[in-house]
Amino acid sequence: MQTRKISDSVAFVTGANRGIGRAITEALLERGVQKVYAAVRDTGTVGDLVGRYGDRVVPLALDVTDAAQVAATAAVARDTTLLVNNAGVALGGDLVSGDIVANARQEMEVNYFAPLEILQSFAPILKTNGGGGVVNMSSIAGLSNFAILATYSASKAAVHSLTQATRALLAAQNTAVFGVYPGPVDTDMAKGIDMEKTSPQHVANAILDGVEAGTTDIYPDPFAEGFGEQFEDSPRAVEKQLAGMVQQG
């Protein structure tokens, strides 16, 4: 896999105002990236980054589920060479709860359909700019379903599959496609998970290290690394292990 320098990039990051997305944005800037388009619902939430980094941060208003806004931001960010599909949501619910289907639809809209639509808009831009790269944020839960996060896991499995397809489909235009599979990370999204968690800053730097090294599948924290090794060795054993996490009533 070809190596690349982050400092040569113009990045477009969704969900850039908090959690892993904010940590990625800050890490990109600290590594000397030329510019980051910080795509967020409320541009005021990245005002402090503009204050620190000046015009190297370009806030863009984006609801990733709004097709018109996706098209509008793509029209502005035509010099993008590194697309980071980071924005995500985890709503949860068990299989007998009344809102499980509605939650699942929303998770698929944000976690799968939105990255797909963004990819559709940005693939021609990346091609024009020499190929560039795409970072898709999946999860270890996208490799084997965490039944306690059943619908979220399903949405991240869709991202995993989309990443594989995108890698094949964009290879001819010299676009590198990276799948990221974090474990538990210390963010608002994971605050209800009672597990040891890795900092977003550690995860962000591991992701960028992987991109620069040309690592196709990136496991950016110790838990994810161990999980990835176990999954590659025996997917069925991992499935049984995760099923055992379900609390029996």
UniProtKB/TrEMBL annotation:
UniProt keyword annotation of Oxidoreductase present: yes
GO molecular function: oxidoreductase activity
UniProt cross-references to InterPro entries, sorted A to Z: NAD(P)-bd_dom_sf, Sc_DH/Rdtase_CS, SDR_fam
Ranges annotated as spanning the membrane: none
UniProt keywords, alphabetically: NADP, Oxidoreductase
This protein's record includes keyword Nucleotide-binding: no
Alphabetical list of NCBIfam families matching this protein: PRK08264.1-4
Family: Belongs to the short-chain dehydrogenases/reductases (SDR) family.
Protein's name according to its UniProt entry: Uncharacterized protein
Organism from which the protein derives: hydrothermal vent metagenome
